[in-house]
Queue: 4 jobs
Job 1
Amino acid sequence: MAWLYLFVAGLFEIGWAIGLKYTQGFTKLVPTTLTLASMVISLGLLGLALKQLPVGTAYAVWTGIGTVGTAALGIWLFGEPAGVLRLVCIGLIVAGIIGLKLVA
């Protein structure tokens, strides 16, 4: 169950990272509220996952999910560059997440 908590926490991390863009400096009420809610849920689920998982592994996986998801959505939603080197680097992060899962 800890891995499920961690995965969902990573998804909410993506939500708040992308949400920050939509808050326009915390001047938009609805995006700001949703972003803050995503932050709280993400950290809460990370805390639950940490009851069973090593902190180094859990934190690296949590931030990795957030990084990969945010980078992918940045490309898709905001037209950020999707060069080969950038995609290779994102792939390396995914490989690291999988590796940490396999050895934990």
Note: The longest helix spans residues 55-78.
Job 2
Amino acid sequence: MPDLSVNRRQLLKIGLLGSAVLAGGGLLSRTFTAAADGPASGFTMLRESDLPLLNRLTPLLLQGTAPEEAMPQAVQDTLVSLDLGLQHLSPALAKQVQQLFDVLSLPLTRGPLTGVWGDWSHASDDELRAFLQRWQNSSLALLRQGHASLLQMTLMAWYASPRSWAHCAYPGPPKI
């Protein structure tokens, strides 16, 4: 039987090699998709590759804030508001949001980080809830920050929309 033990130096070499392969693959993938993936139709900042995630995740995050029959319009309003909000971010912060969406969209990173191995459009509500809970309770601060960012961006975009105000009895901003 061969000796399969690994010493610390070998483990570090394997780890560095694996990191280099993943970083190189991610860089190549991002390079090819970033060049071809401009803003989605009707949006300025949101890209076509962002929409499957956002179209699937937004209704789950907005559950209880709008009647079920109004949810498709609520999702659309939220995405329009989110796109507008992203336009007003600093370039550095907008780039970070795009990187978050890239990590969640690329199959190479989506599966291991979220537990959703297929397309977002095919993910069940339970898989999405498990992903959100996994990130919310992660021991990695970066994943917890990603969860908070997704949640806050989505909810802020929804509550910035006048259609959301009736549900929470908000009369709107004062008229000046």
Note: The helical segments are 8-36, 51-61, 71-87, 91-105, 107-114, 125-136, 141-159, 162-165.
Job 3
Amino acid sequence: MAWVFLFLAGVFEIGWALGLKQTEGFTRLVPSVLTAGCMVVSLGLLGLALRTLPLGTAYAIWTGIGTVGTVIAGMAIHGEPANALRLGCITLIVAGIVGLKLAPGH
């Protein structure tokens, strides 16, 4: 169950990262409240995952999911560049996430 919590924590991290742009510096109420809610849920789920997962592994995977998801969403939603170098770097991050998940001792 810890891995499910960790994955969902990463998804909510994507939500708050995307929400930050919509808050316009926390000047818009609804996006600000939704972003703060995503932050709380993300950290809460990360905390649940950390009950059984090693800190370094869980934190790296949490930030990796957030990073990859936010970059992909930025490309899809905000028209950010999707060139070969960026896609290659995303692939390396995903490889690191998979490697940490498969590594012994988690």
Note: The radius of gyration is 15 Å.
Job 4
Amino acid sequence: MATEIEHKFLVRNENWREHAHASQDFEQGYLCGEGPASVRVRIECEHANINVKAAAVGTVRAEYEYAIPLEDAREMLATLCVAPPVVKTRYWVKYGAHTWEIDVFGGANAPLVVAEVELGAVDESFERPDWVGEEVSDDARYYNHALAFEPYSQWGA
């Protein structure tokens, strides 16, 4: 079984930006609302994939991802999504032995910025950069699936 082991954190400042070595825009939409898994379609530049991820909260979840034709992904985003797509720019920052992914959300989820570090084992240690704040791995509101249905900009409403 494919497993994702990932810690998710809020970002406290912009200090990570000077160390970012790459970035990529993403647009992703969800094909179902509730159930035992989230199913999303994502476009990353000229590539697309479909992803099935266990609808569990925490640092360890089953995850499966497969490449699909770009035109199929565009059609799915336009016609099959059950909520507006989530848009974000992902930046990669090497820190210690790991590469962190920093997601800067746009649209209805701006100005949310979240950092994630993916691990190879549950007990693997990692260094926390000074720009990383509160861990939100166990807070379902910060999952992309949740942000599609209840965007960050609406939390205070």
Note: The mean pLDDT is 94.
